[in-house]
Amino acid sequence: MDTITTALVLALAVVLSGWVSRALPVALPLPLVQIGLGAAIANVADLGVELKPDIFFLLFLPPLLFLDGWRIPKEGLFRDATTILELSFGLVIFTVLGVGLFVHWLIPSMPLAVAFALAAVVSPTDPIAVSAIAQRVPVPQRLMHILEGESLLNDASGLVCMQFAVAAALTGTFSLIDATGTFVWLAAGGIAIGVGVTWAVTHAKNWFARTFGEDPGSQILISLLIPFGAYLLAEHFHCSGILAAVAAGITMSYAEQTGQAMALTRVSRAAVWDTMQFAVKGVIFVLLGEQLPTIGAGAAQVVRDTGHIDPAWLLVYVVAISAALIALRLVWVWVSLRFTLFRAALRGEVIRKPGWRLVAVTALAGVRGAITLAGVLTLPLVMEDGLTPFPARDLAIYLAAGVIIVSLIVASIALPFLLGKLQLPPEPAREEEEDKARSLVAEAALKAVETHKRTGGDDIEDAALYADVAANIGDFYRQRIRDKTADGEGRETVRRAYEIERELRLAAIRAERVEILRLRRSRQISEEVARKFVRELDFIEARLMSA
């Protein structure tokens, strides 16, 4: 009963965080609000939450990593693959070595292996936090794709590095040769298992749906179970469950390109995954706030053990580590940029050199978030003997939490300032590509309507009715083709016409919904009919709002 009560309290706190974030006069990142609510809960009630690392890792990380791999734009990932790999692997190793040595120098009582584990766990970035902070200012689309790709891969590389560091802390030994071989096995095996599990499950469910019909509820539940299955199977074979979850997500995005799922299944599944992502990330940050008093007390004791009597040194450590992370990232981004320009010059390409603002934005956009927090909370409680506490565990968790908070604050202040004055080049290629695709899709629809018209209707009346309806539908698609192939002033006129049409249709849909609800309140229609109509209008409005 206590466990159920705790889960309900955490879920309620996540819900309240959304309301509080919108009600505040000052725009604060949602994770900061959730941490504050967690701390408030700890001050009024003792939930008694004991975070067991293995269970915490299994519950929270697989679905988040899976969803990142599923939804990341693959064309941007491949187009900027070199830059993304430099940031997600090169920068991670650079950060682990640099920050790890710096932390050990700053806090001698923290073993070097634990310092490397801390550095590894603060290396992954969270682009969702960046997009939440910068949602009111223009973010270069290509930069966001790079940040998303970096986050997807550095989640895996950073957490794998943390596992090596923790193993070294537990055993007291580290062999580069053994680590290299282990890493190859972890990476290759994890990726293979993630791909295999997703491929097998999706083919099996597609066959079953074709043979016996599709049940949206089952399809959604299967998608929720895939990351856990891939993670557990990889861990069973001593491979990387982290990479298995990421690979499963990427494979899922390609498997879904067959379009075999029903539209209702896709819409419902997207809503379920959005809710899951919001809930899981929210619970992680609320748990951090709830654990802060206990973690802070343990961290203060470690600080006293270093010879500093004043626990205020904790803030000094957090600021120093955050500054080191920003400095190392700035250096790496600048060097990576120079290297990219140099390679382009060798190929004879002319690339416009980004301004200092864009370089600064890329450096400061390295916000730490849920993955960092989830990873650091999985540090072992005890050493291999089962009795000795893991050295400086509370201090490492406190420092990681402090880095998350500082990075959120710095980014929320600096990014709007830098992005607000950033001159963004136009991106006509994307608009032209979208127009071309819509035109081709409309042509395919016209062909399908003509084909179906010829095969439809068993008698003359039906044939005439098919012809009339097909003509109406054909006019709609032919108009779309004319609109999408217009140029110059015609294109601008079409764009404005679509805006007006969208505005009027939204007004009409909302009026329909008001009338349907009025009819239901006056009991002129049944609840079932009202629910069906409202759902149909919701789908149409959602499509118009995203257009």
TrEMBL record:
Biological processes, Gene Ontology terms: regulation of intracellular pH; sodium ion import across plasma membrane
GO cellular component annotations of the record: plasma membrane
Annotated Cation/H+ exchanger transmembrane domain residues: 13-419
Annotated localization: Cell inner membrane; Cell membrane
Listed GO MF terms: potassium:proton antiporter activity; sodium:proton antiporter activity
Keywords: Antiport, Cell inner membrane, Cell membrane, Ion transport, Membrane, Sodium, Sodium transport, Transmembrane, Transmembrane helix, Transport
A Pfam family hit: Na_H_Exchanger
Regions crossing the membrane: 55-72, 84-107, 113-135, 156-177, 183-204, 278-300, 312-337, 358-383, 395-420
Tagged with keyword Amino-acid biosynthesis: no
Membrane topology: Multi-pass membrane protein
Keyword Transport annotated: yes
Highest taxon in the source lineage: Bacteria
Family per record: Belongs to the monovalent cation:proton antiporter 1 (CPA1) transporter (TC 2.A.36) family.
Function noted in UniProt: Na(+)/H(+) antiporter that extrudes sodium in exchange for external protons.
Protein name: Na+/H+ antiporter
